[in-house]
Specification:
Blueprint lengths: L6 E7 L4 E8 L4 E8 L2 H12 L3 E8 L6 H9 L4 E4 L4 H7 L3 H14 L12 H32 L2 H7 L4 H10 L9 H37 L1 H4 L6 H11 L9 H7 L4 E3 L8 E3 L5 H17 L1 H12 L4 H18 L16
Helix pairs in contact: 5-8, 5-10, 7-8, 8-10, 10-12, 11-14, 12-13, 12-14
Length: 355
Amino acid sequence: MAAQDITVVGGIDTHADLHQAAVIDSIGRHLATHQFETTPDGYRRLLDWLRSHGEVLAVGIEGTGAYGAEIARFLTSNEVTVVEVDRPDRKARRDNGKSDSIDAYAAATAVLSGRAAGTPKARNGIVEAIRTLRVVRKSAVKARTQTINQIRTLIVTAPSDVRDKLRGLSARELVDTLARSRPAGELADPACAVKTVLRRLARRYQALDEEIKEADREIGPLVTQAAPRLIALPGVGPETAGQLLTSAGDNPDRLRSEAAFAHLCGAAPVPASSGRTNRHRLNRGGDRQANNALHTIVLVRMKYDQRTQEYVARRTAEGMTTKDIVRCLKRFVARKVYRHLPHVTHTTQPLPQTA
């Protein structure tokens, strides 16, 4: 039988320098496996190699958000269906062993059997730019928090003549005072050493603070450009909107429904009943950063949005706990956010007027 008369499925186990590719036929028989370099020429040779075995139905890739990002973009641009494949579970690894070839064949088999059916993020538009800029902002925020904590810890153990002058100052006042200070004396003196270190930390804090402000000035307009309707929702700011856009990706239509988006954000209710207890809780999986963004939006709405405050008061009067109220609100916000993501085909029912 000629190669053009055969339909095949590919699988790729991704790595930093070499990708292991495998190909199987339409009934799951292993045909071949080969390694290719992670270069433009290597990607072209990989695609030609797959097509040499027959018509390529789809290619399963493990790690489309990391080492497999570029090969996924390359195959998609060449009109090849790419399927995101999760790493095999531990039981499967124990039963089948572990090697690059085994993992590549497993990726192809997962696609053929239907166990893997997820569409990877496109990573080729404005949302990918937002994600990249948020990486440096997030690290700067973390470093700034670590810096102010180090300043406060050093003050606690500093000599009293240093500590007493800084007592009662707010974080901003503390940083400004220390950054303007001019320590004098010998570094062998503990008081002089701690003053010098506090001044350096304060200036580091200021530099990080400026870096965060610069990132905000860059990210804000991009978020507004990408999803103006989303940023206009009550309680949604550039940071939370940027995170939710990043979680959905440049192609949020890959999420088939608002329920799928809620599941992605860890805001989908699951039964948690036992005996006489009849209740639900939110699933603990999904994207935890997206879940945190929903939580932040809910807290802001509970504090500033009158409609949400009325909802909280009504449910509290019905005997619902604050934790369960927040759970309901997070699910509602996930539904609203999904409706306002760009390029989404809306198939869900009208929103209930509950919050």
